[in-house]
Amino acid sequence: MTHFRLRDVLAGTGGTLRGTLPGAVIFPHLERNSRTIQRGDLFIAIKGEQFDGHDFVAHAEASGATAAIVSEAWAAAHPEIAMPLIVVDDPILALQRWAAWKRDQMDALVIGVTGSVGKTSAKESIGAVLSQRFKVYKSPGNFNSEIGLPLALLEAPDDTEVMVLEMGGAYAFGELALLAQIAKPDYGVVTNVYPVHIERMGSLEAIAQTKSELPESLPETGVAILNGDDFRVRAMANVTKAKVVTYGLGEGNEIRAESVRTDGWKGTTFSITLDGQRNFVKVPFIGSHGVLIALVAIAVGRSLGMHLAEMIVGLQDPSVQVRLLTVPGPRGAQLIDDTYNASSPSVLSALGILKEVPATRRVAVLGEMRELGELTVQEHELVGQRAGDIVDLLVTYGEDARIIAREARAIAQEAGRTIGVYSFGESEREDLISLLQNELQEGDVVLLKGSRGLMMEQIVEAVRVDTKTGTPGDGESAGDEGSVHGA
């Protein structure tokens, strides 16, 4: 198990101890949320956009924390605190130093995964494949930020052979370079460059530049695994010293899929040629986009000397397609829960899945896509045009999503199709839920997808049906970058 020893905390953070603790003390967890403290934990007071963890040190102590990591300024201003404190210049910087320190203590190979869309699915598929031969640790959830990645790295067991770490870097230049300084990846995977967070970055070229910081950070002995079908990603071969391996569907990719065939809920089949031999592969991923999820893992596994036969076993892991869940809905309807987030490429891909699965009626519940800046109208129109070709019933959520509704209706009319279209604002969530509960029927397949800020997972929970009781869900959901628990 991973524990946090006091001497390692002090060595890693560069902090000093104020108060008295036994030299051999071990903290079972590192926790930044005072509400989930367990007895014996180490609390770290992180200042975020909305809350300052220093305001909750007393609550952490009352909840059973043994000690807290705090800033020098706060410690000096609170001499009355009797709780043992590990005093540092800045808790976030100290957390990052500590994670980098731990990375240096480990012999593990580190694989960093970034991209605009599909980071988590790529991380899961790579982890599933490599676990057939190696002791693998994957960063939990979407712990991929300047805070989340260090927390994830600290959780890795000491005997880990390969770490697969998701790396964000979507908001500013230098973010991925910072994460790379902490994790020191040997391999770097870039899935794609799309207009996600373009409102913050300004252009696709700027987004590509931020993502290129990962392959640029790799050593000469490393490997850059690049999606060769995305010309912006392929161009990153020019900024890295590492060996380059490309994957994709297009000609010229070293790891390439051909003869792709989708079989609805049964999965996807394709062929891949390795060492001059053509192999036919079937994976349980829904939709042709699942081929890229498989290819990126095969590219990494191949670079580590694995054989295709053992890699295919890992790709059967049901946890790989982590973002796409199917759950039962009212009166026998089937819900495709892809609500984690939305960008135009990911929505178009999800609509492609909806088109490929067997259904009496195809229904899409699409929320607005945010942080698109000057591309907002264009990207929503693109999604609406695709939806108009595919769906029988369209429900939109959020003001910008009305653009999707308008375009879908127009496209369907041009094709001589009649589709149902409903639009709801954010304040009308309950009305949207009521519509779905009353409208859905057996044979319907329903895609639900929208930007993270809309919290559309709550719509799924309200509409889904408990197969044991036959009753709707309770609408509860939760989850964020929170704590690190000893693994």
Describe it for me?
- This protein is an alpha/beta fold and 487 residues long.
- The protein has three domains: 4-91, MurE/MurF, N-terminal domain (Udp-n-acetylmuramoylalanyl-d-glutamate--2,6- Diaminopimelate Ligase, Chain: A, domain 1, 3-Layer(aba) Sandwich); 106-315, UDP-N-acetylmuramoyl-L-alanine:D-glutamate ligase; 325-463, Alpha-Beta Complex (Protein-Tyrosine Phosphatase, Chain A), CATH 3.90.190.20.
- It contains 18 helices and 23 strands.
- The strands form four sheets. The chain has a nine-stranded mixed sheet, sandwiched between helices.
- α3 (72-77) links the parallel β6 (67-71) and β7 (85-88).
- α4 (91-105) runs parallel beside α6 (148-155), α5 (119-130) crosses α13 and α15 packs across α16.
- The chain is globular.
- Mean pLDDT is 89; it is low at 474-487.
**What global shape is seen?**
globular
Number of strands: 23
CATH topology of the largest domain: UDP-N-acetylmuramoyl-L-alanine:D-glutamate ligase
Corresponding CATH superfamily of the largest domain: Mur-like, catalytic domain
Spatial strand order of the main sheet: 9-10-8-11-12-13-14-15-16
Span between termini: 5 Å
Range of helix content? 25-40%
Q: What is the CATH architecture annotation of the largest domain?
A: 3-Layer(aba) Sandwich
Rg over CA atoms: 24 Å
- The number of domains: 3
List low-confidence stretches.
474-487
Largest sheet: 9 strands, mixed
Number of helical stretches of at least 4 residues = 18
Per CATH, the class of the largest domain reads Alpha Beta
